[in-house]
Amino acid sequence: MSTEEKREKASPYKLEQARKKGQIAKSNDFNSLGGILVFLLSLCFLFGFIGVNIKSVMQEILVSANLFKHEHNFWVIKRVFSSYLTIVMPVMLISLLVSVVFNLLQTRGLISFYPLKPDIKKIDPIKGFKKLFSMKAFFELVKNSIRIGVLIALAYYMYFYVVKEVHVKGISDINGFLKFTYDLILSTIFLFLIVMMPFVIIDFRFQNWSFLKQMRMSKKEVKDEYKNQEGDPEIKQKRKKRQRELSEKLGSLSNVSSADVIVTNPIHIAVALKFNKDKMLAPKVVAKGKGNIAERIKDIAKENEIVTKVDIPLARKIYKEVGINSEIPPDIYDEVATIYRWLYSLEK
Fold first, then answer.
1. Which InterPro entries does the protein's record reference (predicted)?
2. Residue-by-residue DSSP string for 130-186
3. How far is CA 331 from CA 29, 268, 275, 279, 337, in A?
4. pTM (predicted TM-score)
């Protein structure tokens, strides 16, 4: 392993390999905030359902309170707990699901089982000790300490300036209490979002900076990677294939002027078709391309007054499945025939 200081930015290849191993920059605070916010918002949306059920359970117990004996205590506790669990469970499941979705959004759908692979290095006590005194550990300590302090201050404010209003307002009935609770949840969501959002933004930026720093390479590693890639037959083959395809697409631009029609995506893909019933069994793709090449095809078509037809599914299918100077396959005869019937109707 190289002892040279790592100052070079990580190459795309190294980042791609790290991603395959599940190593990416992500903020757990972002997932947690999403889950908690959705939990609170779900309470608001389902508040009517929750309130009615809680009210029903409490009325059932309180009305029959004089009939309960000492041996019925366990039944009462079980009844209240099971009812509350049934009421709150949908909210908890929604919160959990959203946390997973937020995590997938951060990782752009990455699911990797590589971190679950047994590795003796993970239980190395020396590395574990170093992590305790790393920059990341210090950042987490400071961040969590400040966050706990802020949450304590928020809880203090909510209790002394909001919750105590129950006595001040003289709320005595269950409906008034439920309305007060609903307003309290809304206030909590607003304040919680204001207080926690800065922590999420700071944590996200730090995790990204920390990950890129961890992925840095030494000059020797950059050179070794370049040599390995140059000598890798698979990478060479892929590079030659891309170059050949690009050369073929650029060379086919000269055929655009002889095309009958241009089928487009309409923005990213363009395919030029030509059909000669005396020489061909089916229309042929004389040129195709996407991005800048697609724009060039459309420009040439415009210069030569060639008709352009927008057909997103057909353009994508031909671009993906049919090579240049190849006839279209039988499974898309009908779609292409529709294009040509439309083209002939214009000529008439």
1. T3SS_substrate_exporter (IPR006135), T3SS_substrate_exporter_C (IPR029025)
2. HHHTSHHHHHHHHHHHHHHHHHHHHHHHHIIIIITHHHHHT--SHHHHHHHHHHHHH
3. 50, 23, 17, 21, 11
4. 0.47
Distance separating alpha carbons of residues 53 and 32, to the nearest angstrom = 28
Which run of H or of E encompasses 284?
strand 284-290
Which residues have a Cβ under 8 Å from the Cβ of 261 and sit 6 or more positions away?
Answer: 272, 273, 306, 307, 308, 309, 339, 340, 343
Name the one residue in this structure whose structure tokens are 């031909």.
318
Domains, the chain, ordered by start: 12-227 (no CATH), 252-347 (3.40.1690.10)
Summarised one tens digit per residue, pLDDT across range 187-233 is 777 887 888 888 888 888 888 888 888 888 888 877 777 777 665 56
Q: Which ranges of 3-68 would DSSP assign to H, the alpha helix?
A: 12-20, 28-45, 47-63
346 contacts 309 by C-beta, under 8 angstroms: no
Between the alpha carbon of residue 160 and those of residues 154, 155, 182, 194, the distances in Å are: 10, 9, 18, 19
> How far apart (Å, rounded) are the C-alpha atoms in residues 27 and 215?
17
Q: Which tens digits make up the pLDDT trace of 283-337?
A: 999 888 888 888 888 888 888 888 898 999 999 999 888 888 889 898 888 998 9
7 Cβ neighbours under 8 A, 6+ residues apart: 216, 218, 219
8-state DSSP, 67: G
Cis peptide before 330 (omega within 30 of 0): no
- Is residue 233 within 8 Å of residue 280, measured between CB atoms? no
Cα–Cα distance measured from residue 264 to residue 258, given in angstroms and rounded to the nearest whole number: 17
User: For residue 16, which of 85, 104, 110 has the smallest C-alpha distance?
Assistant: 110
| Cα distance between residue 180 and residue 173, in whole Å | 11
Which DSSP letter does residue 329 get? P
Other beta carbons within 10 Å of 323? 10
Exposure string (b/e) for 18-33, b if CB count within 10 Å is 16 or more? beeeebbbbbebbbbb
Using CA atoms, how far residue 167 sits from 170, 172, 186, 308, 324, in Å, is 5, 9, 20, 74, 80
